[in-house]
Specification:
The chain is an alpha/beta fold and about 290 residues long. About 20% of the residues lie in helices and about 20% in strands. The chain has six helices and 15 strands. The chain has an eight-stranded parallel beta sheet. β14 and β15 form a beta hairpin. α4 packs across α5. The longest helix has 18 residues, at about 260-275. The protein starts with a helix and ends with a helix.
């Protein structure tokens, strides 16, 4: 399958602009509503007519239909997009699928822990979004081939993650964190992630000082917010003026024109902080974190 995981998450990976259709098989209740509906085994059994299909999107699963779906068709699949399956309680059967490569699971209200990933020897990318009860990522290190991990929210920023320390010493190369809160506020796990190439988070996720510590100690690391600011286009309707976002908690969005000196001051301060924290252990830089 030749598509980026980001395009898989947003559903654009198989979109044909000529026909305006998606070629990925979407299994769902024919009367699916905004909540995801309630899929039946008959809906799921459409897969019988597509024995070569290895990529699906599925909505409206409950625990019984989730188990039926995985047990009956899971070994056929390499990539699954779970879209609004809010009432699944236990996803441990995913651990029985050694050929599974990509999982994106959007919206759930019952799951409170990861599944055992030791048997997912092909799993290279995982995205978990808009979960209300999942606060711990303990066990993430058991996935032997995982290289890309996204966790947070796509719609409402309500997710709370206890810690990212379980990522320490993993082989993950791309990490995206978009939860409302990181409870332990500890970024020292980055020091052990020797393969990490990209770390994305929102511009107001961490303090300016924390971001400067990352940028100063991992200069090759790429990321949307790993800088003093992010220039963007117009923010408001009928406003053609470009804006910039100053990176850091409680930092402002500024119209660029007229604020050049103020923006330059933020940039200078960021460079000073980078030099201050360069080579400094996280615990020394942020003893109260």
């Amino acid at each position: 399958m030749n598509f980026s995981f980001e395009s898989f998450i947003n559903g654009n990976f198989d979109y044909d602009p000529a026909t305006r259709q998606h070629t990925c098989l979407w299994l769902r209740d024919q009367n699916m509503d905004i909540s995801g509906g309630k899929i039946t085994k008959q809906d799921i059994d459409r897969l019988r007519f597509y024995p070569d299909t290895d990529t699906v999107t599925i909505s409206g699963l409950r625990q019984d239909t989730f188990e039926y779906f995985i047990r009956t068709y899971g070994h056929q699949l390499k990539a699954i997009r779970f879209f609004k399956n809010k009432l699944v309680e236990d996803w441990s059967l995913l651990g029985t699928l050694p050929g599974l490569e990509y999982v994106h699971y959007f919206a759930n209200q019952r799951i409170d822990r990861l599944w055992d990933m030791q048997g997912n020897t092909a799993l290279t990318a995982l995205s978990i979004s808009d979960f209300t009860r999942l606060h711990s990522i303990e066990g993430i290190g058991a996935a032997p081939a995982l290289r890309e991990f996204h966790i947070g929210d796509a719609i409402w920023r309500k997710a709370v993650v206890d810690s990212l320390m379980p990522l320490a010493n993993t082989g993950i190369e791309v990490l995206s964190f978009g939860a409302k809160e990181l409870t332990d506020n500890n970024l020292s796990f980055l020091c052990t992630m020797n393969n990490l190439k990209e770390f994305d988070f929102s511009t107001n996720q961490f303090t300016t000082e924390q971001v400067a510590w990352i940028a100063g100690n991992f200069p090759a690391l790429q990321g949307f917010s790993l800088a003093a600011k992010r220039d963007i286009g117009p923010m408001y309707y009928a406003d053609e003026e470009p804006y910039t976002i100053i990176v850091g908690k409680r930092k402002p969005h500024l119209k660029i024109r007229g604020n050049e000196a103020r923006i330059a001051k933020y940039e200078k301060n960021f460079e000073v902080l980078k030099q201050k924290y360069k080579g400094m252990p996280y615990e020394a830089a942020f003893p109260q974190a």
